[in-house]
Fold:
Amino acid sequence: MPLNNLPDRDIRGFGKEYIESLEYWLRIVIDRELRTNYGTNYINAKDDKGNFLLNGNIRKEIETRYNSEKSRYPRPIDACLLDTSIEIITKPHLFKLHFRKYFELNFKIGREMLAEVLNRLIYPRNCLYHSNPISIRALEQIVCYTNDIIDSIKHYYLENNMNEEFNVPKILKFTDSFGNSQYREQFNPRNIGNKHISFIKPEFYLYPGDKLKIEVEMDTTFKRTDYTIKWSSAKGINNVDDSNILNLLIEERHIGDNIDIQIRVVTNESWHKFGRCDDFLLIRYRVLPRK
Structure:
């Protein structure tokens, strides 16, 4: 569908998905390179000359946001906003030593070109997240620039035999009708086993007759026609098509200590990363009988 035929709500949602994919990939690059070269506390690390890798404003911004919302940010780098990630990636010394190699496919001219393209995304990003109007032209820039940047990163992983972890579509964000919202890094911070989220708390208890809505956002660098999203539960889910949204009417059959909502992403390939699927997220709620 042409972008100019989309309603404003879909335009904003479409743009946010692309921006969040970009932020996700930039954090991957920053964390992998700086953690490998400077250790887990790279936010406060110093170079061989005793100078901080990151300036005081960046360190303070990250630490303040991280310390105030640790339940939201599993790692300090996850507290980076887009403009902060751009500043880290395009810092001349760090770009030359660590980040240039990720962007050579589409940004051969170098750091200045990459910085110019990335910084063009800050204004439309702020419009999207502060309820300001956004033009179709700005949305087109978000789509084009984001794809160019992420394609370069993926090309680097492919060329260096590091692509196995990154060559399948992933669930990047989850939201539900309670107002819960989590990014991929929060699903399972230790990255052990399957990704899972538990909302078995009194404020999230469900009862027969309630309606539960769950929505997932995917990595937009994969074509939507290249994979299927499958929803299931041991307690039963009826009539769920290939959609990123589940609307579930809670019934008596769902009553129990927990109801499992399983989301599987299955590509069109003949092989799958986890045997039957390529990404998996499990969400649990508790369903109680009405008194």
